[in-house]
């Protein structure tokens, strides 16, 4: 019997019983299909009226399926190698996958090599992934030896689906039915199985040789310190060996740029254990970079019409009940402190205190937009397992602003803030970005964490979406990613090696003005409620500092560099002459140091190069005689015999222009020499 379906937008007649695999049999790159907007295995049989879209292994969804299938193969290999291993969760993640195991002894690097060898055999054997729908009772019986799977199954019988039980749990359970995937060999025998929603690749051979196990470490079951510590193995998988090699090269480059390592090498910051995790201290050189960042953004805020304010680090707890952060954001705040029977909290955000400034006296429509700004340090109770150098800390200094506007002014204020944010990123050398629109969840268990009416959310979201689209930048939806009080736009910026970081944000808040009773007198004499728009341009100074360090691989632009010039005398006889040159630079406001040490000249040059200083000035006999210096640049090139006054002028102009490019020789090729 013939049925009519739609395949890749085109109508087609096929025989009943046709599978997605039959439709795309000639294209090995198609690994799953989207049928009626649901991702399914290629073994799925289509029915009349279905809309079928092929998914390639090179697309994001195809890569996710590849990686999840590789996770299953790894788990099969682990249980063959370590008979004691009990299965946790094994989802795909960005660029790879992981699987958690309960084992008697932690995995060693040697274990990972042996597991990889077992994976090779499984992959080459061409096992198929076969999906079965089972009842809850059947699943419990089949998973009887897997206590963590049984726990997930028990959660499907409660008020939720179990998909929210832990990160990655949605790939195991949920979705309205329980399924098990069997790994079946060529004899038709099931050699391994797991509780899983799928979909998966048609067979293991499609994993090919573009995979690798990366590392192992500990992870609490379901992310809670109250639960057992499991062993997590991380892996990566790509369609080809060449893509795997390219990925490893990117990782090596990322390691070279790791701000935690560079922070130590360049003496920028540290995390003393005596102070506590996620609480950085900035050393003098790091402090210079922070000061430059602060000076820049403070000046920009004033130019953009903001007024500087300052608020305390702690507050009575009641303030955060008024704002709605308690209980909606309670998990992100540190516990209360007691003083004379009064509970206080470290602030996790600045907005409630800015609201108190707004309502400290009567306001008129003539004052709006009223823009308040501060460098507000807030404290968030991030769990130790998610802390990541400066990019995920417990102490966050925000260049935080709040604009109080009329509803009619809101679109223009968002435009104003977006333009400000994008220009700031460009000034710091980040020019490749897109926008993300975070909205509330309208279904599921998490929808109740958002406050406000449907009409308020729709109106606020429409304003942000309209203004974001006007920029011409790509706009990516982020359903469920909004703050509890309103939607937001975030700028997602790519660094020098293509990684994406969330940077600046702007949020539309219709809730806090109501909760604080904020009002202004309108032109007709009536009392009206303002709209509150939150914005952070750096996001946080600490995070932006970390991202910049990696973006520039520690080679900060001259205007940001802690030490802008290092003077290196060729011999001790030229120390005084180089000191005179340094004095001229210092008088012009340049941060300069002279290496008066006793090391030999070549070692001094190597030391200055390791410190990634933008300008190295060299002075020898010929330079001293001619009132000149020689430049050595970060790319290793050199320019000799530059008159001192010209050298000072060039350095000062480069710094004052806030040029983010590395300074280079102005000499012709024939004049460019090495010392």
Automatic annotation (TrEMBL):
<protein>
    <recommendedName>
        <fullName>Threonine--tRNA ligase</fullName>
        <ecNumber>6.1.1.3</ecNumber>
    </recommendedName>
</protein>
<keyword id="KW-0694">RNA-binding</keyword>
<keyword id="KW-0030">Aminoacyl-tRNA synthetase</keyword>
<feature type="compositionally biased region" description="Polar residues">
    <location>
        <begin position="665"/>
        <end position="675"/>
    </location>
</feature>
<dbReference type="InterPro" id="IPR002314">
    <property type="entry name" value="aa-tRNA-synt_IIb"/>
</dbReference>
<feature type="domain" description="Aminoacyl-transfer RNA synthetases class-II family profile">
    <location>
        <begin position="289"/>
        <end position="557"/>
    </location>
</feature>
<feature type="region of interest" description="Disordered">
    <location>
        <begin position="655"/>
        <end position="675"/>
    </location>
</feature>
<dbReference type="GO" id="GO:0000049">
    <property type="term" value="F:tRNA binding"/>
</dbReference>
<dbReference type="InterPro" id="IPR012947">
    <property type="entry name" value="tRNA_SAD"/>
</dbReference>
<keyword id="KW-0862">Zinc</keyword>
<dbReference type="GO" id="GO:0005737">
    <property type="term" value="C:cytoplasm"/>
</dbReference>
<keyword id="KW-0820">tRNA-binding</keyword>
<keyword id="KW-0479">Metal-binding</keyword>
<dbReference type="InterPro" id="IPR004154">
    <property type="entry name" value="Anticodon-bd"/>
</dbReference>
<dbReference type="Pfam" id="PF00587">
    <property type="entry name" value="tRNA-synt_2b"/>
</dbReference>
<keyword id="KW-0963">Cytoplasm</keyword>
<feature type="binding site">
    <location>
        <position position="402"/>
    </location>
    <ligand>
        <name>Zn(2+)</name>
    </ligand>
</feature>
<dbReference type="InterPro" id="IPR002320">
    <property type="entry name" value="Thr-tRNA-ligase_IIa"/>
</dbReference>
<dbReference type="InterPro" id="IPR004095">
    <property type="entry name" value="TGS"/>
</dbReference>
<dbReference type="GO" id="GO:0005524">
    <property type="term" value="F:ATP binding"/>
</dbReference>
<keyword id="KW-0436">Ligase</keyword>
<dbReference type="GO" id="GO:0006435">
    <property type="term" value="P:threonyl-tRNA aminoacylation"/>
</dbReference>
<dbReference type="InterPro" id="IPR018163">
    <property type="entry name" value="Thr/Ala-tRNA-synth_IIc_edit"/>
</dbReference>
<comment type="similarity">
    <text>Belongs to the class-II aminoacyl-tRNA synthetase family.</text>
</comment>
<dbReference type="Pfam" id="PF03129">
    <property type="entry name" value="HGTP_anticodon"/>
</dbReference>
<dbReference type="GO" id="GO:0046872">
    <property type="term" value="F:metal ion binding"/>
</dbReference>
<dbReference type="InterPro" id="IPR006195">
    <property type="entry name" value="aa-tRNA-synth_II"/>
</dbReference>
<dbReference type="Pfam" id="PF07973">
    <property type="entry name" value="tRNA_SAD"/>
</dbReference>
<feature type="binding site">
    <location>
        <position position="351"/>
    </location>
    <ligand>
        <name>Zn(2+)</name>
    </ligand>
</feature>
<dbReference type="GO" id="GO:0004829">
    <property type="term" value="F:threonine-tRNA ligase activity"/>
</dbReference>
<feature type="domain" description="TGS">
    <location>
        <begin position="1"/>
        <end position="56"/>
    </location>
</feature>
<dbReference type="InterPro" id="IPR033728">
    <property type="entry name" value="ThrRS_core"/>
</dbReference>
<feature type="compositionally biased region" description="Basic and acidic residues">
    <location>
        <begin position="655"/>
        <end position="664"/>
    </location>
</feature>
<dbReference type="InterPro" id="IPR036621">
    <property type="entry name" value="Anticodon-bd_dom_sf"/>
</dbReference>
<comment type="subunit">
    <text>Homodimer.</text>
</comment>
<feature type="binding site">
    <location>
        <position position="534"/>
    </location>
    <ligand>
        <name>Zn(2+)</name>
    </ligand>
</feature>
<keyword id="KW-0547">Nucleotide-binding</keyword>
<keyword id="KW-0648">Protein biosynthesis</keyword>
<dbReference type="InterPro" id="IPR045864">
    <property type="entry name" value="aa-tRNA-synth_II/BPL/LPL"/>
</dbReference>
<keyword id="KW-0067">ATP-binding</keyword>
<dbReference type="InterPro" id="IPR047246">
    <property type="entry name" value="ThrRS_anticodon"/>
</dbReference>
